[in-house]
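Project outcomes to date are best conveyed with an example. Our students and postdoctoral researchers have been running inverse folding experiments weekly, and each run begins with a structure described purely in tokens. The record below, which covers 221 residues, was selected by the lab manager from last quarter's runs and is presented without edits.
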């Protein structure tokens, strides 16, 4: 058998020394200035009947060397509340200097249990178009609007969502808390839906220590 000579081993690798390249100084002394003005305002007027009309305004103006422009969001709505029922209707519209706008409407109904924590629970929420941006619009780094909910002046498809939950709270006796079996359903106009069944447990003590536990089983389609 003939054995070939593998030859001498390769030389060890030398460590790489970083190279520094001196710039031409074209950015020396360069400065950037960015300005932002934000305004958030809410007005409301409660009445003895339980009705409360309200208005919110979020405004923002960016200037300087970064993205610039102005945008504002107006929200108008009406609330109603009593011992067990809370109802709210509102509409919102946001416009920007980039000739883009988004708008939406929301309706919410909450029917709570009796003062002792027992009884029927019902919650219904529906959303058409874009949701209110609020503080997230004021605090964001830029005023870029979410593309899926942009609506041009010519209109277009309006996304819609609906969500509901119903339950019944049962007393477990003194110091044993409240047990609430519930059913829920969510649906959006893109064809997706989710059904859920759950069980909630709540316990309040005289020491102002509350315990809340909830278990849900959900199915999405």
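After processing, the design step wrote out the following sequence:
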């Amino acid at each position: 058998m003939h054995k070939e000579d593998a030859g001498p081993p390769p030389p060890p690798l030398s460590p790489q020394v970083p190279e520094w390249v001196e710039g031409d100084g074209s950015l020396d002394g360069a400065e950037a200035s960015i300005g932002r003005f934000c305004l958030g305002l809410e007005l409301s007027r409660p009445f003895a009947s339980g009705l409360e009309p309200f208005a919110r305004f979020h405004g923002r103006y960016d200037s300087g060397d970064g993205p610039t422009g102005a945008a504002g969001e107006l929200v108008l709505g009406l609330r109603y509340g009593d011992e067990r029922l809370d109802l709210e209707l509102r509409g919102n519209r946001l416009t920007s200097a980039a000739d883009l706008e988004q708008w939406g409407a929301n309706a919410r109904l909450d029917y709570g249990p009796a003062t002792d924590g027992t009884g029927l629970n019902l919650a219904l929420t529906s959303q058409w178009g874009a949701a209110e941006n609020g503080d997230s619009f004021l605090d964001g780094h830029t005023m870029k609007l979410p593309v899926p909910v942009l609506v041009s002046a010519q209109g277009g498809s309006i996304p819609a969502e609906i969500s509901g939950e119903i339950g019944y709270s049962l007393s477990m006796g003194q110091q044993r808390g409240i047990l609430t079996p519930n059913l829920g359903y969510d649906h959006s106009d893109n064809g997706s839906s989710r059904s859920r069944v759950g069980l909630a447990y709540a316990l309040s003590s005289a020491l102002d220590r509350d315990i809340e536990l909830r278990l849900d089983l959900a199915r999405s389609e």
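Residues 146-155 have pLDDT under 50 and may be disordered. The beta strands are 34-44, 51-64, 69-81, 85-96, 101-111, 119-129, 160-171, 178-188, 193-204, 210-220. The training component of this project remains on track.
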